[in-house]
Amino acid sequence: MTEKQPHPLDDARLARRVETLKEGSRLHGATLRAIRTTPIVQSQGVVLCNVKNERQLLPHFLNHYRSVGVSRFAFVDNGSSDGTLAFLLDQADCDVFQHLGNLKAALFGMAWKNHLLSRYADAAWCFSADVDEHAVHDGWPAISLDEFAARLRETGRCAATAVMVDMYGRDAIANTRVAGSRRLLDACPYFDGDGYRIAMPADWRTSHFPRLDVRGGPLRRVFGSDGPGWLAKTPLILEPDIVFNDPHTVLPPILNFDLPTIALLHFRLTDLLAQRLARVSDQAYTQGSLGEYQDLGLKLREDPDFTFYYSGSVRFQSFERFIEKAVICGVLRPPGGNRPA
After folding, report:
1. Do 53 and 132 meet the contact criterion of CB atoms below 8 Å apart?
2. Rounded to the nearest 5°, which phi and psi values hold at 113?
3. Which of 46, 51, 76, 212 is the most buried if burial means most Cβ atoms within 10 Å?
4. How far, in Å, CA of 327 to CA of 312, rounded?
5. How far apart are CA 306 and CA 299, in angstroms?
6. Chain-centre distance of CA 215, in angstroms?
7. DSSP letter, residue 2
8. 218 burial class (0-12, 13-18, 19+ CB within 10 angstroms)?
9. How many separate helices (H) and strands (E) can be counted in the chain?
10. Alpha helix ranges (H) inside the chain
11. The pTM is what?
12. Tell me: the pLDDT tens digits for 239-258?
């Protein structure tokens, strides 16, 4: 087994930032209501998820992660009114918390997740995901998330980075139905087969958002943008003393710069999109997501039959096939490689 990568804080500024995040998690955690919890088993990993009015997506989310061996979930419900909370309380493998405060004030929910990181400090690993994000990894679905995390740990990794990949259907977005009897991957089987790129920042110390610059996908293809790439995310934490800096990055920042070993299939381009667009004004989104949703809302008002499907669309078949296609050339790699130079 190789020696674990050290992840010391890089300077006093980062130390202050970590302490601020930890203090925020204590303050917000103190007002987090634990509705149902059960003791964690050290060999168990836990998937962390914040939700608000996600009753339709939750069965798909749970089915996906249960299919790769996940046996513990921890949800923070942020004041749902659509039956989300009652549904979660019917799931024996779900710990359920509630917070009725402002999502943005809680660092877009990261203060809650940092509190849960300390609460589940004995877990084998913690994986942060939104309810419309389904993780796939090398060996998926035969290799469980537990085994994948163990393999990463054997290489000395403390965390794992993901690339977010928007999935979509062939029909109009409004006609891409989320149904309980149909997998999201069947409703949205396509991704962009070209146009992705990955780059290292010139100096992460000058950025408040220290991460790989990964850009591409259907929204950038259609709308264009010269802004930063938002598609890198660090969702899997394997060691203590790591905190979420924001919805995409962790601290220490060096952990955000490994080439991704996970793809987060992002199922937001469905008939449920109208509900998300209606929430754009409630400050539930980061600045990058806000701009994307505003562009989408305008496009769908102009063309209700709009679809992202194009001649370069590729049907998802397996993670291995996914790696072979253009999206993945130079963007994803199996566990064990080095950080980009």
Report:
1. no
2. -70, -35
3. 212
4. 11
5. 8
6. 15
7. P
8. buried
9. 10, 15
10. 12-30, 58-67, 84-89, 110-119, 145-154, 184-187, 218-223, 273-278, 287-302, 319-324
11. 0.89
12. 988 999 989 999 888 899 88
Record the tokens describing residue 204, joined without a space: 């992460």
One-letter amino acid identity for 336?
G
- List the structure tokens of 128: 């942060």
Name the token pair of 185: 């991957």
Which contiguous run of DSSP H or E holds residue 314? strand 313-315
Residue 324 has pLDDT above 70, yes or no: no
- Kindly report the backbone phi and psi dihedral angles of residue 23, in degrees, each rounded to the nearest multiple of 5, phi listed first: -65, -40
Phi, psi of 29 (to 5 degrees): -65, -30
Distance CA 31, CA 284 (A): 19
pLDDT tens readout for residues 84-116: 999 999 999 999 999 998 888 888 889 999 999
Who contacts 264 (Cβ-Cβ below 8 Å, separation ≥6)?
129, 133, 134, 135, 162, 163, 164, 165, 233, 235
What's the helix, strand, coil split of the chain in %, to 5?
Answer: 30, 20, 50
251: Cβ–Cβ under 8 A, 6 or more apart, which residues?
A: 9, 14, 17, 18, 21, 242, 243, 244, 245
CB 145 within 8 A of CB 160: no
Q: Tell me whether strands 313-315 and 213-215 are parallel, antiparallel or unpaired.
A: unpaired
Residue 192: band (very low, low, confident or very high) from pLDDT cuts 50, 70, 90? very high
- Under DSSP, the state recorded for 264 is E
Structure token pair of residue 7:
């992840």
